[in-house]
Design goal:
Immunoglobulin-like; 4 domains; eight-stranded antiparallel beta sheet; 47 strands; disordered N terminus
Length: 946
């Protein structure tokens, strides 16, 4: 493999260094005084994150998996202008090094005394700055990644190394890294390599190797730095925006200073740790927060500016109170489960009937509750909607409420079964019309465990006849049939109680079940506060099915998200032209809302549209448009099994490709910005201004192998540094060229599975970030998402998966609520589209989340929805309750979480051993249907209080 190497005689370099030192005293050598290797990995039950090897003779650089930190004695450079600085490292074996990432380390660490590689914790390790004392790198639960490479206000740099004979490599460093070490603004430097799919173990000699193999920095110095920094202009106030349950915060705002490299800040005489203190912005005020303070206490704050030369400004002293404890005395009460024993309602000797909550799965073969969602094992216990005599529901205006009716046959073949529910009548002539009551017959499919279960909902007319067993389903062991009732409460409905009768009959055998719906006095908004955003991959989908799928999702308060709408183009570069004819015909009704004029949220346009931009659109990647001189081969039928060779081509690109901004031609960039401009202008002319148009790059370079797709970068869930740089490039290209267009309508979105390595690379240029399953299911990850959102200005969202088909549907509700409580404004399953096979084997047909299935003529409708779509709807509606509750009582989401957890507690997590990119690894804690019901009622009670 060809690797670009700039070779230089190390002996000559050292000779020049020595002579320069003797003659002009302009060069100094900063020697390493301590170093340590780190691993972020958990391998084969061995947690390397708590391993130490500070006294080993070498450390390893291996993408984001293993890295090092080196402390240098920078005293010789203090007070001097840095003209040039170069880091020298000696390799301890073969390597695949091209790019190094270097940064300050924003907390002090202990090298320790452990000599053995991956030895027991002793000194610094990935999880602790000092394992011996369990000193955190930053906030509780933080890790090394939170104080390096742009995180924790660290200063970061990256560049291509030079390979020097004798096994040395060098990298030029910016002066800021030297100044930081001189001023005590960093404890040495962190080092990480860019990485590729080879995952090479690149060993570097540490200072313990001795014999002239130790790391060092050569610094060329200029004149003394004698300027005095300006006196800081500071404002301090309670940091209410970031207040926590147990700790307080102070907001610090410092006007743009002169001649200031960093600030030293004290709170009540104690220095604030570096990871909390931002560096001065180039323009405007710098704002940051001092957190983890005693709440509601007065603090004396001292701020001193420090120049690059180490000269201090006058110290400014102010006082401010930290934010008060973020708590709420509110309580939703104690929730108790229904417990009474009940009998099934019998229809002569032909059938029996009982009701259960809509999302509960009842086995069609045994009649048993499949995943413990209600009390008892069958219909002999009262549940959230059924007391053995009456169905009881409640909801607000504009909300869907639901239940299932389970009809169990007592004969071999139960024929001519009919169900109807007429108008629900309230006081004073108020009525919920029969047209607001939707019936569905459960369609059964086999889940991952090969067990038959209710899956898809097939529309059923009132009093439409059916049989048990279902002759279309042909399940000989079927003993019962579930009927799903969706009742839409009209927006204009009067608050109060509405009553009716559910009639069930089979020939002469009939039963009547009373039903009561309580309508609350508040309104479910048409505009979604939280998006269930259904990502979609086609799986052979007929384009004619797209509009029906959009309509079905829209009716369920979901946002169907499909990215196949690509207008025709002509020309190239800045002269490229868009033909909108076909696009307007297909997409126009979605953007105007005309496609939804018959839906409950009539005329409300789709909330989000995926724009068609990708690596090879609007301009195809080729050697003419991308100056890459390597191998362009992709998979073919003949080469499909030659993955190793093809991965080699991808690794060749990692090692030899030009910088993306330099490699892509002006023609490529001009076409991109021209089409972007035409999109913005066309939407403006059409009045399509209520939809979030998302530009997102969702490529994986391995798709060159798997799917023969022309892309060179992994912009979806970036891992290696060149991929992060590609995301940054496309984001800047988008956000810097959208002109005066409303940024909230024309967003750049990125999906991130490893926020711990994001640093500040996407700050200010990405609008929305969906954090992945592993990135949004633990307190440290929630904290990172919070900090990234605050510092980068993103809208926080989450992606992952609906509950698996062999788990409780209530899991999806937990996912939504958990996401909202931790700051997310949308939840996106990695995919949602099934196919015709999904009607038989559900998720197994497409690898997961088969929330829609193609029914064709078999079921009388083109597309049917899995019950999980209703779970998503119910989850979104519950979030609307939470939003209204929070708004009324002026509570933050953290406070709402505190209130909820007094009565009910739930959380999301990931499957053991799952990788960060495994969006299908989401797991949920167990809740029962009655708990969600009690929560809804308690919230409604508080919302309605005068």
């Amino acid at each position: 493999m060809k690797i670009f190497r700039t070779c230089l005689s190390f002996a000559v370099a050292m000779s020049l260094f020595t002579c320069s030192s003797l003659i002009a005293q302009t060069k100094v050598k900063l020697k390493a005084t301590a170093d340590v290797g780190f691993s972020s990995m958990f391998w084969n039950s061995s947690d390397e994150r708590v391993k130490s090897w500070g006294k080993n003779s070498r450390f390893k650089l291996k993408s984001i998996q293993e890295m090092g930190a080196i402390r240098f004695d920078a005293s010789a450079a203090k007070g001097k202008k840095v003209l040039k600085a170069t880091l020298y490292l000696k390799k301890a074996g073969k390597d695949r090094l091209r790019i190094l990432r270097i940064s300050t380390v924003n907390n002090n660490w202990n090298e320790g005394t452990e000599k053995k590689a991956y030895g027991p914790g002793n000194g610094a390790c990935y999880d602790f700055a000092d394992f011996n004392t369990k000193k955190n790198w930053a906030w509780p639960g933080s890790q090394l990644c939170d104080v390096i490479l742009g995180a924790g206000h660290s200063l970061a740099h990256w560049g291509e190394i030079k390979h020097i004979d004798g096994g040395w490599i060098s990298l030029d460093l910016p002066p800021k890294l030297i100044y930081a070490m001189c001023l005590g603004d960093s404890d040495g430097l962190a080092i990480q390599e860019a990485g590729d799919l080879a995952y090479t173990n690149n060993f570097i000699y540490s200072r313990e190797a001795g014999k002239g193999r130790e790391p060092f920095i050569s610094v060329e110095l200029g004149d003394d730095l004698t300027v005095t920094p300006s006196t800081p202009v500071v404002k301090v106030e309670p940091g209410n925006a970031v207040a926590k349950i147990k700790t307080g915060a102070i907001k610090v705002s410092i006007d743009a200073p002169k001649n200031t490299f960093c600030w030293r800040i004290k709170a009540n005489g104690k220095y604030v740790e570096r990871w909390q203190v931002a560096h001065p912005k180039k323009e405007g005020a710098t704002v940051f927060y001092i957190e983890y303070l005693d709440p509601g206490q007065k603090y004396e704050i001292e701020v001193t500016g420090v120049s690059a030369g180490g000269i201090s400004s006058k110290t400014v002293k102010l006082s401010a109170h930290s934010s008060k404890v973020l708590s709420s005395a509110m309580s939703l009460g104690t929730f108790t489960a229904p417990s009474s024993n009940i009998n099934l309602i019998k229809g002569a000797n032909k059938f029996s009937v009982w009701a259960c909550p809509g999302l509960v799965k009842i086995s069609p073969e045994s009649g048993k509750v499949m995943f413990g969602d209600i009390e008892g094992k069958d219909g002999t216990k009262a549940n959230a909607v059924w007391d053995g005599k009456k169905v009881t529901l409640f909801g607000c205006k504009g909300e869907y409420v639901s239940f299932q009716l389970i009809i169990e046959k007592k004969v071999d073949l139960l024929e001519d079964v009919k169900i109807s529910l007429k108008n629900l009548k309230g006081s004073g002539g108020a009525v919920i019309e029969e047209t607001e009551i939707e019936l569905y017959k459960n369609w059964y499919a086999k889940n991952k465990n090969k067990a038959w279960q209710p899956a898809y909902c097939v529309p059923l007319k009132h009093a439409q006849s059916f049989k048990i067993p279902d002759p279309i389903r042909k399940m000989e062991t079927q003993k019962n049939q579930g009927i799903y009732f969706d009742i839409y409460i009209p927006k204009e409905a009067k608050p109060g109680s509405y009553k009716g009768i559910v009639s069930v009959s089979s020939g002469e055998a009939k039963v009547s079940l009373p039903i009561e719906v309580e309508v609350f006095d508040f309104l479910m908004p048409d505009k979604l506060s939280f998006w269930p955003q259904l990502n979609s991959y086609g799986f052979g989908m007929d384009r004619k099915l797209l509009i029906p799928t959009y309509q079905l999702a829209h009716q369920h308060r979901n946002v169907f998200f499909h990215r196949s709408y690509r207008p025709k183009l002509s020309g190239k570069g800045k002269n490229i032209k868009v033909d909108w004819t076909a696009f307007d015909k297909s997409v126009g009704p979605l953007l105007s809302g005309d496609a939804f004029k018959n839906n409950r949220r009539s005329g409300v346009p789709i909330a989000a549209l995926g724009l068609p931009f990708k690596d090879s659109w609007p301009t195809n990647l080729s050697p003419e448009t991308y100056k890459y001189k390597g191998t362009w081969d992709m998979a073919s039928d003949k080469k499909s099994r030659q993955n190793k060779k093809l991965i080699g081509y991808i690794n060749e690109h990692y090692m030899t490709s030009p910088k993306i901004e330099e490699g892509l031609s002006p023609e490529y960039k001009n076409a991109f910005t021209s089409v972007q401009k035409q999109f913005i202008e066309h939407f403006k002319a059409k009045g399509w201004n209520k939809t979030e148009a998302q530009c997102l790059f969702m490529g994986k370079n391995t798709h060159r192998i798997q799917y023969k797709v022309n892309m060179w970068w992994t912009t979806d869930e970036p891992y290696h540094w060149i991929d992060w740089l590609a995301v940054r490039f496309f984001a800047k290209l988008w956000t810097e060229n959208r002109g005066q267009a409303n940024a909230k309508n024309w967003v750049f979105r990125s999906d991130i599975s490893r926020p711990q390595w994001q640093g500040d690379i996407l700050d200010g240029i990405v609008d929305n970030i969906h954090f992945g399953t592993g990135a949004f299911t633990s307190p440290p990850m929630y904290r990172r998402a919070e900090l990234l959102t605050r510092n980068g200005g993103f809208d926080r969202r989450v992606y992952g998966s609906a509950n698996k088909d062999n788990t409780s549907n209530l899991g999806s509700i937990i996912w939504f609520v958990n996401g909202w409580l931790h700051g997310a404004n949308a939840a996106l399953p990695w995919q949602s589209m099934g196919n015709a096979k999904a009607l038989d084997i559900n998720d197994s047909a497409v690898g997961g989340n088969a929330m829609f299935a193609f029914a064709g003529k078999k079921l009388g409708v083109p597309v049917v929805a899995d019950i999980r779509l209703k779970a998503f709807r119910d989850g979104e509606q519950l979030v609307e309750y939470l939003t209204l509750f929070a708004k009324k009582y002026k509570l933050s989401r953290t406070q709402v979480k505190q209130v909820l957890y007094k009565s009910i507690k739930f959380e999301a997590g990931i499957a053991k051993g799952a990788g960060a990119d495994n969006a299908d690894a989401l797991r949920f804690s167990r809740l029962k249907a009655w708990q969600i019901s009690k929560l809804r009622r308690a919230l409604a009670k508080e919302i309605q209080k005068k």
